[in-house]
Every structure is written in C-alpha cells, then in structure tokens.
Amino acid sequence: MINRTVTLSSALATLLLLPASLTAQTDSGASNQAQPYSPGATAQASDSAASFSDTELQSFAEARDKVDEVRMQLATKLSSLQDPEEVQRVQKEADMQMIAAVENAGLTRERYNEISRAALSDPALAEKISQIQ
Predict the structure, then answer these.
(1) What is the C-alpha to C-alpha distance for residues 104 and 4, in angstroms, rounded to an integer?
(2) Which of the 8 DSSP states describes residue 52?
(3) Domain count, the chain
(4) Is 73 in a helix, a strand, or coil?
(5) Polar residues composition bias: which ranges (predicted)?
(6) Span 7-32, mean pLDDT?
(7) How far, in Å, CA of 103 to CA of 28, rounded?
(8) Measured between alpha carbons, how far is 43 from 27 in angstroms, rounded to an integer?
(9) Is residue 16 one of the residues assigned to a domain?
C-alpha cells in the first residue's frame, strides 16, 4: 500500500515537473480551463482506463521508473545548488531526460500523462500498474 502511494505520488510529481510549455503545446486555450465536477467523471475515468493496452501500461511502468530515477537525481542535485541560473539549468536538463524516458518507452507525453491521471483516479488501474515488473 505504501509503495503504491509513493509510486502514484511520484507519477503526480512527474506531471508537475514537466514544463507547462512542453505539455501545453498541443492544448487549446479552452482545454486549459478548469472543468466543472460532474458525477459521471469517475465513471469516465474508469472507462478510459480500460482503453489502455497492456503494452501501454508496460511502457508506462518502464517510463515511470526512469522518470522517478531522474526525479530523485534532480532532488539530490538541487539540494546542493544555490545559484538560481544553475538550478534552472539543472531542472531543464532533468525535464528533457524525463521526456526522453517517456518517449524512449514508446509513449507520447500526452499518453503518459493520461495514464498517470487515470491511475491516480482508478485504484484498480493503479494496482495493475504496480504489479508490472
């Protein structure tokens, strides 16, 4: 249970680490607006989770592991930096490494983020991903 929580937290942190300019390249202005809550939203998340193939989930798990590794290295590096420009450079480098990890696993950033969001809202999907070795 704790491992799954840490993994899901890592996935969410990864989403937050990706630069908005990179993840928003394909977004339209309307899609950036907050969506109102609707009772069917949870059912929609579960339905969309069923649309992920086993291959995509395997790729996601592989990418997530590499992204987590980069994120941990980033945290270590940032703890010793004082210069804001150096911090920004290191963060940008880590962002590019995380994006490369996702793309090298065969996923787009958008698909990786879709799976990550679905796993955060669908415990069954999160469990399935956590079982992938």
Answers:
(1) 24
(2) S
(3) 1
(4) helix
(5) 27-36
(6) 43
(7) 22
(8) 24
(9) no
- 25-83, pLDDT tens digit by residue? 333 334 434 344 344 444 444 455 568 999 999 999 999 999 999 999 999 999 999 99
3 located within any domain = yes
Residue 123 lies in a domain: yes
Q: What is the pTM of this model?
A: 0.65
Structural domain for 85, as ranges: 1-9+55-127
- C-beta of residue 59 within 8 angstroms of C-beta of residue 115: no
pLDDT digits (tens, 9 = 90+) for 74-131: 999 999 999 999 999 999 999 999 999 999 999 999 999 999 999 999 999 999 999 9
* Residue 50 falls inside a structural domain: no
The encoded tokens of residue 27 equal: 């977004």
Task: Compute the distance between CA of residue 109 and CA of residue 14 in angstroms, rounded to an integer.
Answer: 11
- One-letter amino acid for residue 67 of the chain: V
- Locate tokens 């059912």: which residue? 43
> For residues 129 and 119, is the Cβ–Cβ distance under 8 A?
yes
CA distance linking residue 54 with residue 127, whole number of Å: 13
Both tokens of 75, joined, read 């945290």
